[in-house]
Automatic annotation (TrEMBL):
Keywords: Coiled coil. The keyword Coiled coil applies. It comes from the Bacteria. This is Phage shock protein B. Residues 30-57 form a coiled coil.
Amino acid sequence: MGLWTAIVIIVVVTVLADVYSKNQKNKARFSGNDKKMNELNETIKKLEKRIENLEIIAVSDPDNFQDRARNTSFYKEPEEPARANQRLVNELARAKQRGD
């Protein structure tokens, strides 16, 4: 084995070791981000639900809101919350347009 061959082998092994170590560091760094992503997704879902509730409040009368919310959430068969909120917002918007 010649001198140049030994130098090339050393350089290639060094580069491969560097790439491997960087890859391992990135894996360790991104595994912590999965927990953050899950927390952020949960926060987003909670905020979306709050926005839907605020939409209901915005298009309804203050006196009527508590009664309507009670009627839709407790006395009917359970419905997907997002769909129920969207339906209620649509009903209240139509009623407001009609002048009720």
